[in-house]
Write a structure and sequence with these properties.
Keywords: Membrane. Its main location: membrane. Pfam families: Omp85 (PF01103). The structure is a single chain. 14% of the residues are buried. The chain is built from no helices and 5 strands. The protein is elongated. With 98 residues, it is mainly beta. It has a domain at 18-60.
Length: 98
């Protein structure tokens, strides 16, 4: 079984002079979107701390397959599958002000 996941986002205030809180920024990293990074560990940083961004994209491709050795019918081994995956993404800040 193949599974493809895609996410994207762009954050902008209603008016050009509206400030966006750091708590509202997007964050990437961790086991749910970009594996291999600490939780919220992907993207811009300030003094070593993640500050998030106003734009992001993330892609994931998963492959699920039965175990290579065939357990008997209705056995405990049928509850398990092999899972191969690849994740990628980017997080940044884009300004649309002139």
């Amino acid at each position: 079984t193949f599974q493809l996941g895609a996410q994207a986002g762009f954050l902008r205030g209603i008016t050009n002079d509206m400030q966006i809180s750091i708590a509202d920024n997007f964050y990437l990293g961790g086991p749910m979107n970009v594996r291999g990074f600490a939780m919220r560990g992907c993207g811009p940083r300030n003094e070593g701390n993640a500050i998030g961004g106003n734009t992001f994209w993330a892609l994931a491709l998963h492959l699920y397959t039965p175990l290579p050795f065939r357990p008997g019918k209705n056995s405990f081994g049928e509850l398990f599958r092999l899972h191969g995956f690849i994740n990628g993404g980017n997080l940044g800040n884009i300004s649309l002000q002139k």
